[in-house]
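Researcher: We're teaching a course module on how sequence relates to structure. For the next exercise, students receive a sequence and then see the predicted structure as tokens, so they can try to spot secondary structure elements on their own. Here is the exercise chain.
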Amino acid sequence: MSDIWAIIPVKAFIDAKDRLSGLLSPPQRRRLAETMLIDVLDAVAGSRLLAGIVIVTVDPHATALGEKIGAQIVTEGARNGHTESVNAGRRILAGHGRAGMITMPGDIPAVRAGEIDAVLSAHRAAPAFTIVPAHDDLGSNAVVCSPPVSVPLRFGDNSYFPHLDAARGRGIEPTVIRQPGIAVDIDHPADLALFLRMPQSAGTRTRTLLEELDLPALLAGRGIA
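Model: And here is the predicted structure for the students to work with:
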């Protein structure tokens, strides 16, 4: 096992997934966000190569889910967005002398433990930077840094190429690895349709929930495929 820790930033479920408001009610969006996080935490907890897990959140339900798998809960930075949540988590890891970190969002429900281990296995000796782009090559859906604060990070809709540049600016040639489950985060209706088409979505709690909510028929009825 390496000394690389996972950092999972989780915003409050009550505010989650507002870009799906045309499809889902607020209670349904909250339920979706929680279900996706459970799928992600199942994968993280199943990894053979992670040394530990940090969840950055102030949401009580996310806290309870993290505690079930023995995660360390951090509240610092949790109200200040994705980037600040990740930075708070990695500063803590650096302060404790941890060798590295991998960060992923809580809305990539098709991720599998084997994908996480494949990313960690591809990561080079420190100083090193490894990245898994989103399926559209815009977002950064998994980032590995060793040491934890070796490369400046700023997440958003177009962070992938800026992160490559940031690593090179620190003299580190990035390792790029593609993983289909990690690559699909769910923010928009089209993301739901893509997820439902993925063979890897079968057996996830998120897939079961979407079918329960009749999302496949609803998306088809709106011409979203």
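Model: If you want an answer key for the exercise: The first strand starts at residue 4 and ends at 9. The mean pLDDT is 96.
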